[in-house]
UniProtKB/TrEMBL annotation:
UniProt-recorded name of the protein: Cystathionine beta-lyase
Lineage per the UniProt record: Bacteria, Pseudomonadati, Pseudomonadota, Alphaproteobacteria, Rhodobacterales
Chemical reaction(s) catalysed: L,L-cystathionine + H2O = L-homocysteine + pyruvate + NH4(+); an S-substituted L-cysteine + H2O = a thiol + pyruvate + NH4(+)
MF terms (GO), sorted A to Z: cysteine-S-conjugate beta-lyase activity; pyridoxal phosphate binding
CDD domains with a match to the protein in the record: CGS_like
UniProt entry tagged with the keyword Manganese: no
InterPro entries the UniProt entry points to: Cys/Met-Metab_PyrdxlP-dep_enz, Cys_b_lyase_bac, Cys_met_metab_PP, PyrdxlP-dep_Trfase, PyrdxlP-dep_Trfase_major, PyrdxlP-dep_Trfase_small
Pathway named in the protein's UniProt entry: Amino-acid biosynthesis; L-methionine biosynthesis via de novo pathway; L-homocysteine from L-cystathionine: step 1/1
One Pfam family here: Cys_Met_Meta_PP
Coiled coil: none
Length: 389
């Protein structure tokens, strides 16, 4: 049976490993290497076809992860980088040149915007931030010098779903490359490459790892664009620890189970929050009540555990009564691990093309793998403390 004949969950248990090449070991071993030796001068002189040349360019462990990412994202080629931000930077720099113009979703991850504003601007690249709900109307913003359209769906902190199909159609008509931050879906619930997107990146730190213990970025792309991305990758000297690559491969094996649980538990918590008097708004596109639900349902096969909501209380001191006493929800950066997280956010500082007026405190929640009943009790106790204050 070929991989094309296997169900997707089965493919994720098989990809990136070949026990016969590693003395029968089920998992691809950790290859720690810098120098790679060649037996003859002729072998050393072979520039093409030698996948192993130097540790920074990859080892069997990191190559196995790249192969697995291709399976996950339904892509032709892949690269792995030391973090999600490094993957973003790699992609943006690959198309940066003086006079170039980028279109970037206004709901993009903060460090994406900062790279555009602080690094690319200094290189002569102009960035226009666009309303993530534009869809085909993005054609009105394309210029002759537009080189790249950057998407993130759902959007960071506010969870707008973009019409990827419409944007890709416009981009192809104008010869513009498309890229998307696909971290929210983990590549499990959405495969942008099957919708015609040229590049799909993830912070593998999140759901690919699943255990909050590594830093990792992934870039999936078409064969046509790979060499351009690879050249930037090599010039920056990016490389991933083989130990981290090994952990990412191990995390990938349990992704189907984890993502299905994140989906179910996240929806249960979102529905509960929507019924609470303290909550003004819930931003979860998998809920039928969400304004982006129809578009989400058309593109995604499920939802991760990350979403947002707004509560009426805004006083920082009173908010501390809610956050400081939580038992199961931690406060910290990142998400996608087995543990639940809850942090206040302020999307307004990242908006220039759209307004964010929540009329309360915006909160980002990641629902982990704990039992939803315990998480609900934890949140209810926190809201009670907020009232007592």
């Amino acid at each position: 049976m070929t991989s094309d004949d296997m169900e997707f969950d089965t493919q994720l248990t098989q990809c990136g490993r070949n026990p016969a090449q590693h003395f029968g070991a089920v998992n691809t071993p950790v290859y720690r290497a810098s120098t790679i030796l060649f037996p003859t001068l002729a072998a050393l002189d072979v520039k093409e076809g030698a996948r192993l040349r130097y540790g920074r360019r990859g080892t069997p462990t990191t190559h196995a992860l790249e192969d697995a990412v291709c399976t996950l994202e339904h892509s032709e080629r892949a690269l792995v980088t030391p973090s999600g931000v490094s993957a973003i930077s790699n992609i943006l720099m690959s198309f940066a040149e003086p006079g170039a113009h980028f279109l970037v979703s206004d709901s993009s991850y903060g460090p994406t915007r900062k790279f555009c504003d602080f690094v690319l601007r200094g290189l002569g690249v102009e960035t226009t931030y666009y309303d993530p709900t534009l869809g085909e109307r993005i054609s009105e913003l394309i210029r002759p010098e537009t080189k790249l359209i950057w998407m993130e769906s759902p959007g960071s902190q506010t969870f707008e779903v973009q019409d990827v199909d419409a944007i890709v159609a416009v981009a192809r008509a104008h010869g513009v490359v498309t890229a998307i931050d696909n971290t929210w879906s983990a590549g499990y619930f959405f495969q942008p490459m099957t919708h015609g997107v040229d590049i799909s990146m993830q912070a593998g730190t999140k759901y690919i790892s699943g255990h909050s213990d590594i830093m990792l970025g992934t870039i999936a792309c078409t064969e046509e664009i790979y060499d351009r991305l690879r050249e930037t990758y090599l010039r920056f000297g990016f490389c991933v620890s083989p130990d981290d690559a090994y952990l990412a491969l191990r995390g990938l094996r349990t992704m189907p189970l984890r993502m299905r649980q994140h989906h179910a538990s996240g929806l249960a918590i979102a529905d509960w929050l929507a019924q609470q008097g303290e909550v003004i708004r819930v931003m979860h596109p998998a809920r039928p009540q969400d304004p982006h639900h129809a578009l989400w349902k058309n593109q995604f096969s499920g939802a991760s555990g990350l979403f947002g909501f707004v509560i009426s209380e805004t006083d920082r001191g009173r908010l501390a009564r809610l956050f400081d006493g939580l038992q199961f929800f931690g406060m910290g950066s990142s998400w996608g691990g087995f543990e639940s997280l809850l942090v206040p956010t302020n999307p307004t500082v990242y908006r220039t093309a759209t307004d964010w007026t929540p009329m309360g405190q915006t909160i980002r929640i990641h629902v982990g793998l704990e039992d939803p009943k315990d998480l609900i009790r934890d949140l209810r106790t926190g809201f009670d403390r907020l009232h007592d204050a």
